[in-house]
């Protein structure tokens, strides 16, 4: 899309006046969209447009219609928990573009950056677990919400099932059958509204609580996916900065415990078992899938994570605590 087409879409949304062309300032972060800051008289806003080919080393394509599902998720999340996501200020479905409020970095630090610099607070993780389970709980069994995400399964397959699970299965034939079964179970489980990218890089820590970004992988699916996806990041941070392993694992415990305490729509044991399976697969996916963790670059680190993940997949545990205990033990042995 040309710059002129972007301005035309913005004018159609009423964000700018026709003919007015304020500078589009590219923002970094993310691999799946073009993101710009625009400074208006009323203040800065953020423009986001979905890309058909993601900005990663391996070929990774995804339908741009996901932009509409992202907008839908934001609106529902903000209805459930006001401030859970930036407000949507305009949406052009044809252009696959929307405009949202811009949140100043000085007031809304990125959780990943906090974790990188040693600002590691278990209460922050507990707050995230509470927000995650609140959204899941209040959308579970809601046919109106399900209807708004009709067709999202194909997008979720392209953005999550194939690149994270099936691609990893191809790379590791010894555990391919287990991973493929996990993928099938995840696709067949449709219980609540799922964010799909519950990652520290997509979480801002505001004064009033966490704010969630980048919900373009949203779908009506398995809530265990969000839980496992976020917990996986906390385990991998131990590789990034091993001196803070205890803090990361305290966050793991706080998030998991708070989340499980809020599960009301199904027996928590069943959800936890699915989450442990997904977590085991995600560990391997961030090494051998299409979206490897960019901060795990040393061969010894990759081999360590791969080894733990394969051990887990060969004998799947039933609880998150079992994974946490094994991970901590393996970290101490290094």
CATH architecture of the largest domain: Alpha-Beta Complex
Q: Summarize the main sheet.
A: 5 strands, antiparallel
* Beta-strand content estimate: 5-15%
- How is the CATH topology of the largest domain named? Aminoglycoside 3'-phosphotransferase, Chain: A, domain 2
Number of domains: 2
* Gap from first CA to last CA: 49 Å
- Average the pLDDT over all residues and give the rounded result: 92
Q: Report the CATH C-level class of the largest domain.
A: Alpha Beta
- What share of residues is helical? 40-55%
Question: Could you explain the architecture of this structure?
Answer:
The chain is α+β, with helices and mostly antiparallel strands and 334 residues long. It has two domains: 3-101, Phosphorylase Kinase, domain 1, CATH 3.30.200; 111-333, Aminoglycoside phosphotransferase (APH), C-terminal lobe (Aminoglycoside 3'-phosphotransferase, Chain: A, domain 2). Helices cover 52% and strands 13% of the residues. The protein has helices at residues 3-12, 66-80, 111-116, 122-139, 143-148, 152-171, 176-188, 223-240, 245-261, 268-288, 299-314, 320-333; strands at 25-26, 33-40, 43-50, 88-92, 97-101, 192-194, 203-206, 209-212, 219-221. A five-stranded antiparallel sheet has the order 1-2-3-5-4, sandwiched between helices. Helix 4 packs parallel to helix 9, helix 8 (223-240) packs antiparallel against helix 9 and helix 8 packs across helix 10 (268-288). The chain is globular and about 65 Å long.
């Amino acid at each position: 899309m040309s710059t002129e087409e972007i301005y035309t879409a913005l004018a159609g949304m009423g964000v700018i006046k026709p003919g007015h062309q304020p500078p589009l300032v590219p923002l970094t972060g993310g691999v799946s969209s073009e993101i710009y800051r625009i400074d208006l008289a009323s203040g800065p806003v953020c423009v986001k447009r979905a890309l058909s080919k993601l900005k990663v080393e391996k070929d990774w394509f995804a339908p741009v219609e996901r932009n509409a599902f992202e907008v839908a998720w934001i609106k529902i999340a903000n209805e459930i928990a006001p401030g859970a996501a930036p407000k949507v200020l305009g949406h052009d479905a044809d252009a696959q573009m929307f405009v949202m409020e811009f949140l100043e970095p000085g007031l809304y630090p990125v959780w990943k950056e906090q974790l990188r610099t040693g600002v590691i607070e278990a209460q922050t993780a507990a707050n995230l677990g509470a927000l995650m389970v609140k959204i899941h709980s209040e959308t579970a069994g809601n046919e109106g919400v399900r209807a708004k995400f009709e067709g999202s399964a194909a997008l979720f397959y392209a953005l999550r099932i194939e690149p994270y699970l099936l691609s990893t299965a191809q790379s590791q034939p010894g555990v391919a059958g287990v991973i493929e079964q996990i993928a099938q179970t995840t696709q067949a489980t449709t219980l609540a509204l799922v964010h799909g990218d519950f990652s520290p890089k997509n979480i801002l820590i505001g004064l009033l609580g966490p704010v969630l970004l980048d919900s373009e992988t949203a779908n009506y699916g398995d809530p265990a996916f969000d839980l496992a996806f976020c917990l996986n990041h906390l385990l991998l941070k131990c590789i990034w900065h091993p001196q803070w392993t205890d803090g990361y694992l305290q966050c793991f415990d706080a998030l998991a415990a708070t989340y499980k305490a809020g599960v009301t729509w199904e027996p928590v044991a069943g959800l936890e078992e699915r989450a442990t399976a997904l977590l085991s697969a995600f560990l391997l996916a961030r090494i051998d899938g299409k979206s490897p963790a960019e901060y795990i670059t040393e061969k010894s680190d990759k081999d360590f994570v791969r080894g733990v993940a394969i051990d887990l997949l060969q004998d799947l545990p039933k609880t998150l605590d079992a994974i946490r205990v094994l991970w901590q033990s393996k970290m101490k042995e290094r």
